[in-house]
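Model it.
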Amino acid sequence: MIAWSLRHVREPLLAIAHLLAIGLWLSGCTHRPMSTPADGLSFAFGARPTRGEVRVVPALAVHAPLEVNLDSYLGASLPHQRELVRHARTRALAEIPRAMGLALPGEVNSELGLTWGGQFRSHRLPFVAQQRLADALVGRRPDLHAVLAEAAAAVGGEATLFSWVTDLRGDPLTLRGLPGETVETTAGPVVLDHRDEPFLVTARIGMALVTRDGEVVLRYEDTYDAILSEDGGADETGRVLARSLVQEIVLVWATDPRLWAGEPSPPDAPRQRRGALSLR
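Modeled.
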């Protein structure tokens, strides 16, 4: 079976979303194949309506430590002022997971509209649960879904919305040309400016919606790109990344009538498939 990233089929699927009945099958793969959670699955879905209070915990940043890149396009040492700007941009880069997690609920509400019956509430993830989940996300524990279930039980509410960043990189675009030049990136064209020092951000982002009784209703993970600059800062870049994630997740809600009609999934229905989302 040929697998496609959900972003490549977003428009035609949304156009027919409310005409679909059960029996729809979506195949998906990560946009940029990288390491997956310890269970080997980038996707998990179980059709189950989730309403009421959904508690949102801060995004977990489990990526490698960030380093300041002080290289230059011409190979010479950077002037002191530009070094300061690079340091500032790297500090902003480190804030992106937090910003993405804060923006995620609003982007879900914006995309789903009336098809979403949950109310988001900010909540804290207990420290022990946080550490166990971080270990599972980076492969030090093989039981990611079990850890998510335990964490959701500790948080309470009808369900918990988790999010995480397992890989985060920021590449200074001024390494690609001279000031005033326009460079093409995976996040769009960017005009180079030493004072602005734009970064191309690449982030591996995941999320999971888990009910209080431990069912992982949805888990999704993919890699996204965005531009970090002085004008937008970490908050805007985090919002762009959250929106990119939600625009793929929304296909699950938009194309499965059971999530807004109240029909639970059959007890024997498969909840996970490798490299695919099953909506049967």
